[in-house]
């Protein structure tokens, strides 16, 4: 419960700028100083050579956990690195308390290799409903924000995804082959058809931002980790886009989705991609 019975809408109206400041500060103090300056001892593997974690990930998440929890008393922070250390933490997404969903460095592999295609993802949810989100790509000078019912913005400019231009192939970012099973690879083969141009995704958060900006037509992802999807899903929704699982339902951050799922710049495109996936 929020202190003094303040509603989340009231909290967001009063403290959204403080959340933005926290996200920017995490980048300025813990992430950017290590960008292209990582020492070997600051990089570790989690589940394998393609699943990396750095001191930037760990320290930025610790900073955001402390600040976000203090901004909204009674809330819980579910961060990628905390869940890696203790998978039980993830269950808070299904609880009654407001939840901050945090990916401190989305695109860690790009970050490690000195590519600017990484970002910090923060979303606020309650009872499985996404309420607000922040996507910060510090090396690109971009901060995208969304509040449910209040629109999507990039550096203060409103985003409208709009429908794809007629007569050209749909550009679709898909789960990277390094992170898909053989069965998932077979499902994604359905996108190799006339009128569709699939490619492996980079940072999930930045792919969602590209959809919200109308620079990418759709994504197709085969995993459920909420920290990768929550912030981007709300941003795309508020920019006029849609997301669908194989059963035709919107993706649920609480899990149990029929995968893979698609997020697209408009509902018609989402239905077209889903149709290809279900026909495979």
Automatic annotation (TrEMBL):
Superkingdom, taxonomy of origin: Bacteria
Gene Ontology molecular function: any one: metal ion binding
Binding residues annotated for Mg(2+), in chain numbering: 80, 103, 106, 228
Record keyword Hydrolase present: yes
Gene Ontology annotations of biological process type: inositol metabolic process; phosphatidylinositol phosphate biosynthetic process; signal transduction
Record-listed E.C. numbers: 3.1.3.25
Pfam families for this protein: Inositol_P
Entries under SUPFAM superfamilies matching the protein: Carbohydrate phosphatase (SSF56655)
Named cofactor requirement(s): Mg(2+)
Reaction catalysis annotation: a myo-inositol phosphate + H2O = myo-inositol + phosphate
Enzyme class label: hydrolase
Keywords assigned: Hydrolase, Magnesium, Metal-binding
Name of this protein: inositol-phosphate phosphatase
Species of the source: Streptomyces longwoodensis
Organism taxonomic ancestry: Bacteria, Bacillati, Actinomycetota, Actinomycetes, Kitasatosporales
């Amino acid at each position: 419960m929020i202190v003094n019975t303040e509603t989340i809408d009231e909290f967001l109206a009063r403290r959204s700028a403080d959340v933005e400041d926290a996200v920017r500060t995490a980048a300025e103090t813990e992430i950017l100083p290590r960008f292209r300056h990582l020492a070997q001892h600051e990089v570790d593997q989690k589940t394998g050579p393609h699943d990396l974690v750095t001191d930037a990930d760990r320290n930025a998440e610790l900073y955001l956990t402390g600040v976000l929890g203090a901004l909204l008393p009674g809330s819980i922070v579910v961060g990628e690195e905390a869940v890696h250390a203790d998978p039980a933490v993830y269950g808070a997404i299904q609880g009654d308390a407001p939840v901050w969903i945090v990916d401190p460095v989305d695109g860690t592999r790009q970050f490690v290799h000195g590519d600017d295609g990484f970002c910090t993802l923060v979303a606020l949810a309650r009872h499985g409903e996404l309420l607000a989100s922040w996507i910060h790509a510090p090396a690109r000078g971009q901060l995208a924000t969304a509040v449910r019912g209040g629109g999507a913005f990039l550096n203060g400019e409103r985003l409208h995804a709009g429908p794809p231009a007629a007569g050209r192939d749909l550009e679709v970012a898909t789960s990277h082959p390094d992170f898909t099973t053989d069965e998932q690879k077979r499902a994604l083969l359905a996108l190799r058809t006339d009128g569709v141009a699939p490619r492996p995704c980079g940072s999930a958060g930045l792919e969602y931002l590209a959809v919200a900006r109308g620079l990418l037509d759709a994504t197709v992802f085969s995993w459920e980790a909420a920290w990768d999807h929550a912030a981007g899903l709300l941003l795309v929704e508020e920019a006029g886009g849609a997301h669908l699982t194989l059963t035709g339902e919107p993706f649920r951050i609480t899990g149990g989705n029929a995968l893979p799922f698609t997020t697209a710049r408009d509902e018609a495109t989402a239905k077209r991609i889903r149709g290809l996936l279900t026909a495979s």
